[in-house]
Write a structure and sequence with these properties.
Elements: E1 5-7, H1 9-16, E2 35-39, H2 43-51, E3 64-66, H3 70-86, E4 88-89, H4 92-96, E5 108-109, H5 111-124, E6 132-138, E7 144-152, E8 155-159, E9 167-168, E10 175-180, E11 188-191
Parallel strand pairs: 4-5
Antiparallel strand pairs: 1-3, 2-11, 6-7, 6-10, 7-8, 8-9, 10-11
Helix pairs in contact: 3-5
Length: about 200
Amino acid sequence: MKRTMTWAFAAVFTVLGLSSAEAFNNNGAAIFMPTGTTTSQPIGHYEFCQRMPSECSTRTPRPQMVELSTGLWTELTAINDLVNARIHPMSDLDVFGQPEVWSFATDLGDCEDYVLVKRRELAARGWPLSALLVTVVRQENGDGHAVLTVVTDRGDYVLDNLDGRVRLWSETPYLFVKRQSERDTGAWISVGDDRSILVGAVNN
């Protein structure tokens, strides 16, 4: 199936007269995640890249933003539902005997494993990797968590194993800390989430 993409995020914002921090939906929620500069790579992702370098070596000088049609929305939600149903939650310590192992889970895994499988499934269907970004957040209780951010012309949507709904990033209860760079699958950038909660940086 042919995918329709929009090139160059910055150019899109310029045409619309919006910045990532100024674009809001009708409910007043920011639709685009405000990102910053290069930041530290989570240790689990670093070790994943060492094991599977091809997953972390894609460079995209001109990142792609998905033009979210009804058909693509259906596909997005279907993949989210499929992976959430296929994988049963279990900690890395229980599965691998180690506290932090990022992997392509088959039936058991934790949040990062759900994210990696969703990313792979969407990429296999033609979604660009530059729009499928592993993202680190803080839950309301302060625990670290990972979700998949999907960058579209209608906003940055989040696929989550703890909530079956696909929602705008700003409509989730999380504090967003950092995510993969849209230009380099092995690099990470900070997220300027200043909505209400202040916590320390996530370093793992």
